[in-house]
Amino acid sequence: MSSGSLLLVLLVLGCLQSFTEAQRKNGPVQCCFDFQTYKIPLRLIKEYKKTRTDCKKAGIVFILNNGRSVCADPGDLWVKNHMKKIDLRFFADVIQPQPSR
């Protein structure tokens, strides 16, 4: 094998490895396998995120004020209502920012 061919093979392998690493980093950050069975008080929730479409189950991840993450079923009425209220809270802060302390 000539040095040019060897260099080409190494270059291709390097590219494949970087593509594989990039795919791994773009994988689901968090998927939900079980859902919260009781309603979480809205005052305890800071924000929410939707799980990625490549997760087996669609889910909503509520981020609590203490930093914990809790999965909830996006089909539950209380989850939908909480998401709407959190969105309104966020947009209210964007339109009329809270004063700095």
UniProtKB/TrEMBL annotation:
SUPFAM superfamilies in the cross-refs: Interleukin 8-like chemokines
Signal sequence, renumbered to the chain: 1-22
GO molecular function: chemokine activity
A biological-process GO annotation: immune response
Keywords carried by this UniProt record: Chemotaxis, Cytokine, Disulfide bond, Secreted, Signal
CDD domains linked: Chemokine_CC
Major subcellular site: secreted
Localization annotation: Secreted
Chemokine interleukin-8-like domain segment(s): 28-86
UniProt keyword Signal present: yes
A Pfam family reported for this protein in Swiss-Prot or TrEMBL: IL8
GO cellular component terms, semicolon-separated: extracellular space
Entry superkingdom: Eukaryota
Subunit and partners: Self-associates. Also heterodimer of MIP-1-alpha(4-69) and MIP-1-beta(3-69). Interacts with CCR1.
Known role: Monokine with inflammatory and chemokinetic properties. Binds to CCR1, CCR4 and CCR5. One of the major HIV-suppressive factors produced by CD8+ T-cells. Recombinant MIP-1-alpha induces a dose-dependent inhibition of different strains of HIV-1, HIV-2, and simian immunodeficiency virus (SIV).
Family: Belongs to the intercrine beta (chemokine CC) family.
Record's protein name: C-C motif chemokine
